[in-house]
């Protein structure tokens, strides 16, 4: 744009009698050739920018002058403030992480024999559109470990160390002799030797019942001991059946741990047999029976990747996945231009590989790294698609960025005034970065 | 809200059996239409049908009809238009539109080529079209047909400032709870009629080892629909209207009561599949499919939403009517709620042909054709139950018609879009936060009121 404008007004010819410029072209001819480009640029770039700026000073319906109200909204609206905060996080982390990873990949692939193949693989995500990448990562981060690969790995690792229990959703049914206690259940009454105790629960899915569970039987009283049954007091298709008594097809809670508690101390404990029966020694006389919480531990459900707190880092992760390859290719190109002699010289001087990388390679690559980071920064400021697609509706507000807020204000809430103000604001944010890039380029050319 | 209407539209894949059955019915319908046309020709100029519908001869006239329907739904509607062509001799072109249709029409009108008739999905859109002087009122013939076939309530929502503009051609019944028949059978649970019974049923299902409810909380509109049903039944239609127009505040005690009632399900541990966090990441289609997959151990036993749920059930192996059944949303207060939605035909370019089409769309003849094809519900009270292809559809249609004038239009559809129709904002977001933390009723009310005040205040 700048170059076109500069070329459009060439310095006036020195001799007034001749209407030819230094290069010998007539002005009209020059203008004629420039016209299509100027018209296109004007209609497609200058006019929209100008109109956005004007529009940003008008209210929602576009017929009343609003002054700076829309810009005030930029800094008072909660949604926009979150968007701004997230944009800062994005601009700081996404380009740096991508560039750092790209640098590592570039330096390492130089030394691998299959480097090109590796580069190809890392670069491949660039061939996918942002939208498709968004859909892929929406699935990767899915909460359900059966669908989301991130949680599948996480849960897999977690479960190798901590097993979930057999009866996660068991709970007391109606008129139960049990009450909730520290995540487990406790009998309301105390138990005595020679008595039988019933500990009925409901709510364990049939396919989650332990394999060795057998039909529950009522325990027989034994003198000097406490006996009892713990079982699923629920018959399929019939409801509880006879309340508090094992019906014919009801299953015992095989392996349920039972503790006898006296004054808060465990005095005896046992595990239920396949038919749900258990026996406790005489020491448990006068105690309350507890089914401790360890019986009911919920299966681990993995990390809430797309929940309010992790959603932005998660989306940045998907961005890095796409753009690290881009950074790598540019840096690798820069690396090819680094004079080998310097590296050799450093090595001859006794520098180890880390020192060579840190003191020689990185400083030599600094201009390339700066260009890559700045390019990615511009790219990140306008990030929209990934956020729009990956964040589920419930956490879209927490993942919000300016470009998304612009879209929502402009097209979903019919607030084109505020949307234009956001657009102008984004433009202002991009300008310094762009200037930096242009000046770099100029210096490069001069060199 | 845009969410669910687009779901209805985008994938209207009816289950194969229903489609086959419907196909057979269509053939008979068409052939009988042919016969009528023949008799109409002889009786000089006008076509009469069994229901006494008279349409003028319109040879040479051509019409454009715009609607956002796609796929099967569009195909089925075209069959209705074909019948109109056959009866009148006019040529009708279907113009596929995009959501939001009001913006689509705006650009068409700016371009000087509005369609003759458009199907608008919300009462707000009709009002907008009238305010912008796009819509033309219905003529005498269309009015007569409308009054004959529609209850006053359905006529009124097509009116703006006392003048009739819209003909509600298609309706949605959003007061339905779909359930996995197998899970209910295993639990020994019965279809509930009241909220209390619903809680008992849920407990029975829970006791059998299945999570009672599946909630598609990632889409905010499913949550607003939940709320609307509870509120309509509990607080009554008058309060519902007042809240919809923001004449009473969201901090009203009636809202508190409704949210507290909702929390009896949303807030109870293990009542919602995946817990609150899981539900908030479950999109609507998934909330349906997870209820009807997994054999006799589905992720949940019940899922609430409108008649369009059957479209998503079509994606599973479950069969509507045997594996997947439905009961009307139970009464929370004195009577069961009927929350609905619908598409109204509005004339944008007044002509004899456009008026005739509006008349035709208001007649049971048109509705019956599409009803037979499935996936469609008509608010026309003179459409026979037998027109619907299966018992489930008949039940849904019956519930809708039986509500008479006590049905109410989706509240979030009536609200400004910033409040009732934007993902992650306004009512959607506030109810999502409430689902996450159902204990904080007062906090949810305060947030709803704050967002509502901002959205209604803007007058957008």
UniProtKB/TrEMBL annotation, chain B:
Residues 1-29 form the signal peptide. This is Sugar ABC transporter substrate-binding protein. Coiled coil: none annotated. It holds the Pfam family SBP_bac_8. Gene3D superfamilies: Periplasmic binding protein-like II. SUPFAM superfamilies: Periplasmic binding protein-like II (SSF53850). Belongs to the bacterial solute-binding protein 1 family. Keywords: Signal, Transport. The keyword Ribonucleoprotein does not apply.
């Amino acid at each position: 744009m700048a170059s076109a404008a500069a070329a459009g007004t060439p310095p006036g010819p020195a001799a007034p009698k001749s209407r030819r410029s230094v290069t010998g072209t007539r002005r009209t001819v020059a203008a004629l050739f420039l016209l299509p480009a100027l018209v296109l640029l004007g209609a497609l770039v200058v006019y929209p920018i100008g109109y956005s700026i004007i529009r940003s000073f008008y209210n929602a319906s576009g017929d009343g002058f609003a002054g700076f109200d829309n810009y005030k909204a930029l800094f008072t609206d909660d949604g926009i403030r979150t968007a701004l905060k997230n944009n800062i996080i994005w601009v700081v982390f996404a380009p740096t992480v991508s560039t750092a990873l790209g640098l590592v990949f570039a330096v390492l692939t130089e030394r691998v024999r299959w480097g090109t193949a590796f580069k190809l693989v890392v670069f491949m995500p660039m061939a996918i559109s942002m939208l498709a990448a968004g859909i892929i990562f929406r699935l990767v981060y899915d909460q359900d470990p059966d669908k989301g690969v991130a949680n599948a790995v996480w849960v897999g690792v977690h479960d190798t160390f901590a097993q979930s229990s057999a009866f996660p959703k068991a709970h007391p049914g109606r008129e139960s002799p049990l009450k909730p206690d520290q995540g487990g259940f406790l009998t309301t009454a105390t138990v005595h030797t020679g008595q039988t105790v019933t500990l009925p629960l409901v709510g364990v899915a049939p396919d989650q019942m332990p394999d060795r569970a057998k039909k529950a039987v009522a325990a027989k009283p034994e003198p000097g001991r406490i006996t009892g049954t713990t079982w699923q007091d629920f018959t399929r298709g019939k409801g509880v059946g006879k309340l508090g008594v094992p019906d014919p097809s009801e299953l015992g809670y095989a392996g349920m741990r039972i503790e006898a508690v006296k004054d808060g101390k465990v005095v005896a404990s046992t595990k239920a047999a396949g038919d749900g029966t258990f026996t406790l020694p005489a020491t448990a006389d006068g105690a309350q029976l507890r089914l401790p919480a360890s019986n009911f531990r919920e299966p681990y459900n993995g990390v809430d990747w797309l929940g309010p707190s992790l959603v932005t880092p998660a989306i940045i992760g998907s961005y890095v996945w796409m753009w690290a390859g881009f950074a790598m290719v540019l840096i690798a190109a820069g690396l090819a231009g680094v004079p080998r002699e310097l590296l050799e010289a450093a090595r001859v001087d006794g520098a180890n590989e880390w020192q060579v990388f840190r003191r020689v390679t990185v400083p030599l690559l600094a201009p390339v790294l700066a260009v890559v980071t700045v390019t990615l920064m511009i790219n990140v400021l306008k990030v929209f698609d990934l956020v729009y697609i990956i964040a589920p509706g419930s956490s879209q507000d927490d993942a919000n960025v300016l470009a998304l807020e612009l879209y929502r204000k402009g097209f979903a809430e019919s607030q084109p005034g505020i949307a234009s103000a956001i657009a102008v604001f984004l433009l202002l944010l991009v300008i310094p970065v762009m200037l930096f890039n242009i000046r770099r380029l100029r210096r490069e050319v001069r060199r | 809200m845009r969410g669910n209407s687009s779901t209805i539209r985008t994938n209207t894949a009816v289950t194969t059996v229903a489609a086959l059955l419907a196909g057979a019915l269509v053939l008979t319908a068409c052939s009988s239409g042919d016969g009528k046309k023949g008799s109409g020709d002889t009786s000089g100029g006008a076509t009469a049908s069994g229901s006494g519908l008279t349409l003028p001869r319109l040879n040479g006239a051509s019409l454009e009809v715009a609607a956002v329907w796609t796929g099967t739904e569009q195909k089925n509607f075209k069959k209705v238009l074909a019948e109109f062509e056959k009866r009148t001799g006019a040529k009708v072109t279907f113009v596929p539109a995009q959501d939001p249709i009001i913006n689509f029409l705006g650009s068409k009108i700016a371009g000087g080529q509005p369609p003759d008739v458009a199907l608008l999905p919300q009462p707000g859109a009709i009002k907008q079209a009238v305010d912008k002087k796009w819509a033309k009122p219905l003529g005498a013939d269309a009015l007569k047909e409308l009054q004959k076939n529609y209850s006053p309530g359905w006529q009124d929502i097509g009116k703006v400032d006392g003048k009739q503009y819209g003909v509600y051609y298609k309706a949605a019944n959003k007061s339905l709870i779909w359930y996995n028949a197998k899970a209910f059978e295993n639990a020994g649970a019965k279809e509930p009629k009241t909220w209390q019974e619903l809680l008992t049923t849920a407990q029975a299902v829970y006791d059998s080892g299945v999570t009672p409810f599946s909630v598609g909380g990632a889409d905010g509109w499913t949550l607003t629909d939940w709320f609307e049903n509870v509120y309509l039944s509990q607080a009554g239609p008058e309060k519902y209207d007042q809240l919809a127009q923001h004449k009473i505040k969201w901090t009203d005690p009636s809202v508190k009561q409704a949210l507290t009632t909702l929390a009896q399900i949303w807030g109870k541990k293990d009542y919602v599949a995946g817990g609150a966090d899981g539900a908030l990441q479950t999109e609507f289609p998934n909330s349906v499919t997870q209820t009807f997959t997994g054999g006799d151990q589905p992720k949940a036993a019940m899922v609430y939403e409108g008649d369009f749920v059957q479209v998503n059930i079509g994606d599973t192996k479950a069969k509507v009517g045997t594996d997947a059944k439905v009961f009307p949303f139970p009464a929370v207060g004195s009577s069961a709620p009927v929350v609905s939605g619908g598409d109204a035909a509005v004339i944008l370019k007044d002509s004899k042909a456009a008026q005739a089409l509006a008349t035709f769309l208001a007649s049971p003849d048109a509705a019956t054709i599409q009803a037979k094809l499935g996936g469609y519900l008509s608010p026309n009270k003179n459409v026979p139950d037998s027109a619907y292809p299966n018992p489930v559809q008949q039940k849904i249609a019956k519930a809708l018609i039986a509500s008479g004038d006590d049905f109410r239009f989706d509240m979030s559809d009536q609200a400004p879009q910033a409040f009732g129709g934007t993902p992650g904002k306004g009512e959607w977001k506030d109810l999502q936060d409430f689902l996450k933390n159902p204990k904080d009723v007062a906090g949810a009310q305060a947030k709803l009121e704050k967002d509502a005040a901002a959205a209604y205040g803007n007058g957008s």
